Each structure stands twice: as C-alpha cells, then as structure tokens.
Automatic annotation (TrEMBL):
Keyword Iron: yes
Keywords on record: Heme, Iron, Metal-binding, Monooxygenase, Oxidoreductase
Keyword Thylakoid: no
Residues annotated as transmembrane: none
GO biological process: organic acid metabolic process; xenobiotic metabolic process
Annotated positions binding heme: 320
Coiled-coil intervals: none
GO terms of molecular function: heme binding; iron ion binding; oxidoreductase activity, acting on paired donors, with incorporation or reduction of molecular oxygen, reduced flavin or flavoprotein as one donor, and incorporation of one atom of oxygen; steroid hydroxylase activity
SUPFAM superfamilies: Cytochrome P450
Name of the gene this protein is made from: Cyp304a1
Protein name per its UniProtKB record: Probable cytochrome P450 304a1
Cofactor(s) needed by this chain: heme
UniProt similarity note: Belongs to the cytochrome P450 family.
Length: 380
C-alpha cells in the first residue's frame, strides 16, 4: 500500500482522483443523470460534504483493490459516506459510556449510540464482503493484483501450512473498513469546513482563484506538481487542519509502564490523550492562533513547512498511515473544485457565523447546501 499513496506518491492514483473530480464537476455543470445525483446536486446548489465523497472513496478502492465504481454506481459511495458519518457521530474517542458500561447497548441501544454505531459500520462490512467475495473468485496465487490479493494469498498459505491462520475474511473486512472510514468522512469534512471558512472570510476565495489562475491557468487541471507553487491554497488546507483538527484529542493511548511526562507521574495502564487543540491554539507557538491566517506558513512567497507545528495526523509510531494519501488527495480535490467554481451561500448573503460543530469520534458539522457557480470551461 505504500506504493499507492500511503507513504509514496503514486501518479496512477492521482489520475484516478482527478478523473473522479472531473465527473463531479460535470454533474454540476451538465446536471444530474439520476435520482441519487439529484440528492447531491440541485441546479446551482451542491450538498456538502457529500459532493466531495466520490474522488476520495474511489481513490481508496483503487489503493485496496485496483478498482473504482463507475458513475452509475456512485450511489453506493454516497451510502458508504452517510454510514460513516452516522458511525462517527454516535460515539467519541473515549467510547462514551458504552465503553465502560457495555450493557447499555441492550437496554438503550439508540440512546447509548450502539444502534448508530452498528448501522454505520454495517454499511462498510456489507460493501466489502461483496467485493472480497468477488475478488476471491478470480484470485490467483501466482499473481498479486493488489492488496486484497496479497492478503487472501497469505491467508490461504497459512491454512495450507498450519491448518489455521491469523488472517481471516472477517479480519480483512475490518482492515478495509478501518482504512475507508477516514476517506469516507474526515477528508470531506476538512474540505467542507474550509468551504464554510471561505464563505465566512470571502477574501480567501479571491486569493485562491488568483493563485490557481496564475500557476495552473484554465487550460489544464491542477496536479500534485503544482503544489509547491501554490503556497496559499496549501496554506489554507494546513490552517484548516490546525484551527479545527478533526480529532481534537487524538487517539487514546495507554501507558505500558510507569512513566513521567512533563513532570507528571503517569502510572502504568493510565489512558493518555494528546490535546491537539491546546497545541494548535498555543500563543507562544502561533502568535495569533484564533485567526485563520494561511500566510503564517508562507515565507518569501514559498510554503515553509517548518512553520507548521500542527499535528493533525499525530506523530511518532502511531502517525496516521494515510497522511500522504490525505494531504495529496485533498490538494487535488480542492484545487480542482476551486479552479472550476465560485462558491457562495444559498441566498447569496455573507455568512455571519460558523455552524455549530458536532463532536463524535471525529468533529463534523451539519450537512448544508451551497451555491456553486462555474467560473468558465475547464480542461478536458
């Protein structure tokens, strides 16, 4: 998987994401072709965050199985994303009361969040069970086509040699689900929050459009090669992840032994969480952390990564495996979106305040419609 966007850049993956984003642009410009598309695009209005679902989800399908769903089956991708959001909103990083008192699921399945968690997760399991069963019919031990083939081959090999295997189909379904959850929810929400921020601070849009027109123009689509020459757009993405990290307390860890952290004694088995909000809003580091200011990462007209002290993907051994995939794909999707469109509120009036956030396993905001106006014809 490192060869397909998880650690290394992969041009074939980039072409997949770009092609899927072109389809989404086409749905808006030329109109929906079916009822599922009409739920996402209605005239000049598009539905956030789901307008961004397809490129990310077909991207992860390509990483896992070297396949994508055609436009006629986009509805399946939107179903996955909606299930993912339901799952994310029915718990939090600590598991809520359900993790301490699991019997609540039997007495109060809806109130405890168990019903939403199970329904949301089941969407992923059902999707990948069908995909894995289809792949197992054509899998050949002599030739690995993708990650799923490699996993299945290893599982069969252990069964033949030992009569048992630590690999299983059920475990494979969960692995695929784990990798898909962020691409079904987190990256879209980050871009949706950035679109909302643009509506709240209209000056951002003008600068993004100026940079795209100057660096990319209108005769071709943006590529990852443009990223180094587009510090403001990249700065917007980084600033969004700084000011509103999707997972504010990161993933909980457990102290394996007695340890001292920052002068505090932490006993063995203590749960440890990193407060990214505190880090990302530290005035000693950022100066004016309350302000959304992408220029803080730009020095002499160039992006200075050293200025970015944020940790939206964590750090160390537990660094998010999908950081490369997320950063590259978010740049491609957002740059293509902003090259093609000008965004505004549905009524055309300035946005006076940001929407309330919904705290769950990740931070989300309520779904909403925006008005999207084509800037001009984009490249084929």
């Amino acid at each position: 998987m490192r060869d397909y966007g998880f650690g290394r850049r992969d041009e074939s993956l980039e072409s997949i994401i770009t092609a899927e984003m072109k389809e989404m642009v086409d749905i808006r410009i030329n109109g929906p072709k079916n009822s599922a598309e009409q739920e996402i695009v209605n005239g000049e209005l598009v539905y956030m965050p789901h307008f961004f679902d397809v490129p990310f989800l077909n991207g992860i399908l390509y990483v896992l199985a070297q396949c994508t769903l055609p436009r006629s089956e986009y509805h399946r991708l939107w179903t996955i994303s909606k299930g993912g959001i339901k799952f994310q909103r029915n718990s939090d990083d600590m598991g809520r009361a359900l993790s301490l008192t699991p019997w609540l699921k039997d007495l109060f399945p809806k109130w405890s969040g168990f019903k939403g968690l199970r329904e949301g997760n089941q969407v992923f399991i059902d999707f990948y069970r069908d995909l894995v069963q289809e792949i197992m019919l054509t899998q050949d031990d002599a030739h690995d086509r993708h990650f799923l083939d490699m996993y299945i081959r290893k599982m069969k090999q252990e069964m033949q040699e030992n009569g048992r295997s630590t690999f299983s189909v059920d475990q494979l379904l969960l692995v695929c689900t784990d990798y898909t959850f962020p691409t079904a929810t987190a990256v879209q929400m980050t871009l949706t929050m950035l679109v909302e921020r643009i509506l709240y601070q209209p000056g951002l849009q003008e600068r993004i459009h100026e940079e795209i027109d100057r660096v990319v123009g209108r005769d071709r689509l943006p590529t990852i090669d443009d990223r180094n020459n587009m510090p403001f757009l990249e700065g917007c993405l980084r600033e969004m992840m700084r000011i509103e990290p999707i997972v504010p307390l990161g993933l909980p860890h457990r102290a394996l032994k007695n340890v001292q952290i920052g002068g505090y004694d932490v006993p063995e088995n203590t749960m440890i969480c990193i407060n990214y909000i505190h880090l990302h809003m530290d005035k000693d580091i950022w100066g004016d952390p309350e302000n959304f200011r992408p220029d803080r990462y730009i020095v002499d007209g160039k992006l200075c990564v050293a200025k970015d002290k944020s940790l939206p993907f964590g750090a160390g051994k537990r660094l998010c495996a999908g950081e490369t995939y997320a950063r590259n794909s978010m740049f491609l999707v957002f740059a293509t979106f902003m090259q093609a469109f000008r965004v505004s509120t549905v009524d055309g009036k300035p946005l006076k305040k940001l929407a309330p956030r919904i705290q769950g396993i990740i931070t989300t905001l309520p779904e909403f419609w925006i008005r999207v106006t084509p800037r001009n014809e984009i490249a084929n």
